[in-house]
Specification:
The chain has 176 residues and is α+β, with helices and mostly antiparallel strands. The protein has one domain. It has four helices and five strands. The protein is globular and about 55 Å long.
Length: 176
């Protein structure tokens, strides 16, 4: 907070989680970051990422060879079926399926783009309290307001490839 800022007003750009939940804006921002990481991932492991970051740093004159900043996709967690947060994941996946079969989804609720090279697509879907981000050839993650700070790995979700395919088709319907 700057000295001239009014008292009781959070600093610009600061979004605070309240009562164990995120704001929708913060969740969408995290989903944007994850989408960027998944798009640039191109099958790189964490080891390949670290090596590439160090190479980039050394070729630009950076002498700090400390560890690069962690990627959100490397901090993803699995939630087991017995965990109370699993209900949140189930609800979000059911809502994603519902969105996928909607005749004409709301604008921006389902988006997709082709990644280079190849036929891989990055799929993004947003609903009430959740955002799903996934590669058709790799990881898929869920970010939910009720599970703040944790990108949930949903790679083992039933029929995930079919869901991503259905969301791709829904994105085309939404855009037309």
């Amino acid at each position: 907070m700057e000295p001239d800022d009014p008292a009781g007003v959070p600093a610009a750009g600061v979004v605070r989680a309240a009562e164990g939940r995120w704001s929708p804006a913060r969740r969408r921002r995290m989903a944007d970051i994850i989408a960027g990481e998944l798009a640039s991932m191109a099958g790189r492991t964490i080891k390949a990422y670290i090596e590439a970051e160090r190479w980039d740093a050394s070729t630009t004159g950076d002498t700090d060879l400390g560890p690069p900043p962690p990627r959100l996709i490397d901090m993803r967690a699995r939630i087991e079926p017995g965990d109370p947060a699993y209900r949140v994941v189930d609800r979000a996946l059911a809502a994603a399926w519902s969105l996928a079969v909607t005749g004409r989804p709301p604008p921006g609720s389902a988006r997709t783009r082709r990644l280079r090279p190849g036929k891989t697509r990055l799929v993004r879907a947003n609903g009430d309290g959740w955002s799903l981000i996934g590669r058709t050839d790799g990881p898929a993650l869920l970010v939910a307001d009720e599970i703040p700070g944790i990108p949930v790995d949903i790679g083992d979700a039933p029929q995930l490839p079919e869901l991503l395919g259905a969301l791709t088709v829904a994105a085309a319907r939404s855009a037309s």
